[in-house]
Amino acid sequence: MTDNSHQKRRFIALISTIALLLIGLALFCVISAGSGRIKIYFYSSETNINNFKSLKMEFDRYLSKFGPYEFQPFSARDVFEKQVKDKENCLFILSSWHYRHIHKEYSLTPALTGVRNGKKYQRKILLADEKAPDIETTKPGLIASAGSLQYTTSVLKRMLKKYAEHAFRVLTVPKDIDALLAAGHGMAKLAFASRYAFDELKGINPRLCRKMKVLAEGEETLLLIVALPQGFTANRKKMVDMIKNMPLTPDGKKRIRMLGLDGWQELDASDRSRLES
């Protein structure tokens, strides 16, 4: 009886040891897999994306076909910049405006730019109701914009040099087309949006567009930028090609459209010069 009890205790101890070893091995594998992942960090100062959970899930599902990649979107510039500081084996997707502001400090190199409707450049415009007074005679009222406050204010001050010291009031909306609708229906005095969005709205609601007028136009800027840290040591070509080839499959097209794009294109010397000037 004593021998049986002793054997039972030894058997239980052996099973417990094996279980602990298996748990430890599983934890090691999880940690190793996590540390080996290459992250794609996304933040756009030009859009107010509110479906981050869906965006992350869709991109993670797509990227998992190609290797240990993870998509990490951000809603705030300061959090994004703090998180990616000194990171090397990763990829950034950010606005050209944002890239211009941080590429030197973060040692970034541009690889691709977004394409929409066959174009890689966009132009922001300021619109109002057709009966609104000229912008040169009246200070801007509430402005609807999908961009961050910092981005919107920065571009408006270049667009409206007369109001360089003006404190703009901004109503943040999800997309450019929402900014146009807000101004068109009286929820804001002005709309800050892309020319592309205004042209798109003409096809949806031509009557509303006829009641709006363009008050000012900004400079042409590149769409979203795909950038890599200069210290990136993984397979750069594989990483860039994976993103560049997204439009070649239905799954890739679906994901890239979530970013408001149709595809990606390499930058030429002129693009790089304008981007980093």
From TrEMBL:
Where, by residue number, does the polypeptide cross the bilayer? Answer: 12-34
Does the UniProt entry include the keyword Transmembrane helix? yes
Q: Which organism is it from?
A: Candidatus Desulfacyla euxinica
Q: What keywords sit in the KW lines?
A: Membrane, Transmembrane, Transmembrane helix
Q: Which domain of life is it from?
A: Bacteria
Question: Looking at the keywords, is Transmembrane present?
Answer: yes
Q: Provide the taxonomic classification.
A: Bacteria, Deltaproteobacteria, Candidatus Desulfacyla
- What protein name does the entry list? Phosphate/phosphite/phosphonate ABC transporter substrate-binding protein
